[in-house]
Amino acid sequence: MEDNKKKCAADGDKDIVFSRAVKAGKRIYYLDVKKNRKGELYLSVTESKKIVTGDGFDAQVNYEKHKIFLYREDFDKFLDGIEQAIGYIRDNSEPMDYPKKADNEPSEGEEKFSLDIDF
């Protein structure tokens, strides 16, 4: 029982105070706002990619996951860096046919990436 408590505390899942899932093709991005032991909030970003091996009845499904943790004191620098990287990709890539946008996505021609998180 004690080992189970340690595992839950290590995972931090019980400290999630806000969560949002972003589905993007074969990937899902989980944006989880968590609280650490000091009561400070931070952002955990998890990319989960579905991996299917085999065919038919022999098919096996696994999920490959990658996480990053972003702390409040780094938000401005992170946003600045990601805006520059996205701008570079948009300026230096061939135009793509993007899937039809959802109602909550920016309208066509809106170039700036923004992330609004209040703490």
| CATH architecture classification name of the domain at 2-73 | Roll
Give the C-level CATH assignment of the domain at 2-73: Alpha Beta
The stretches of 5 or more residues where confidence is low (pLDDT under 50) are 1-9
* Terminal-residue CA separation: 34 Å
What's the helix count?
Answer: 2
Question: How much is the average pLDDT?
Answer: 80
The percent of residues in helical segments reads 10-25%
Shape: flat
CA-based gyration radius: 18 Å
Number of strands: 4
Give the topology string: H per helix, E per strand. Answer: HEEEEH
Largest sheet: 4 strands, antiparallel
- Predict the CATH topology of the domain at 2-73: Nuclear Transport Factor 2, Chain: A
How much β-strand is present in the residues? 35-45%
Structural class: alpha+beta
- Give the strand line-up of the largest sheet: 1-2-3-4
